[in-house]
Amino acid sequence: MTFFAHIAKVAAITSIVVLSGCASVNKAPANVDAESKLFKANPTASQVYLYRNETLGAALSMPVTVDGQLAGNTGAHTFFKFDLPAGEHKFTSQGNESLLTLSTVIGGQYFVWQEVKMGVMSGGSKLQVVPAEQGKKGVLESTQIQSELK
Question: Domains of the chain: which residue ranges?
């Protein structure tokens, strides 16, 4: 085996190990996860589901902020559910790499997909609002994580 073939083999194995690992996240209790997946509207707040339903970048933990406060970190196949007052809210992912501003109303439900973007040296993400049908499907494929928001 040539030197370059050996290096390529080692790089391929390393990539598989990195991509198949799982980021550590703070999961919500099973009953909270199940309740959130009923998608019952909150008559006193707006609800934002922010989800990451991809395996790509599974080893990467990605920080998310809401209105400048750290909510926590997502991992592969995880989601947050935020009950927020009506109004304009700013969400960021992976530092300030992806910024999304969302205007909400009381009783409204919103779905934000955290799409993983793999780069040459590291991963990143892009936040985007998606239709309710697509968002609910993504949330159902994922496990709820607890938010650090106060």
Answer: 23-144
DSSP per-residue string spanning the chain:
--HHHHHHHHHHHHHHHHHHS-----BPPHHHHHHHTT-PPPTTSEEEEEEE---TTTT--EEEEETTEEEEEE-TTEEEEEEE-SEEEEEEETTTTEEEEEEE-TT-EEEEEEEEEE-SSSEEEEEEEE-HHHHHHHHHTSEEB-----
Q: 57 pLDDT exceeds 80?
A: no
Tens-digit pLDDT profile for residues 120-148: 555 678 999 999 999 999 999 999 999 98
Can you say whether the dihedral through the CA atoms of 100, 147, 109, 115 is positive or negative? positive
Name which CATH class applies to 23-144: mainly beta
What is the model's pTM? 0.80
Give burial (CB, 10 Å; 0-12/13-18/19+) of 138. Answer: buried
Nearest Cα neighbor of 16 from 62, 75, 73, 58 is: 58
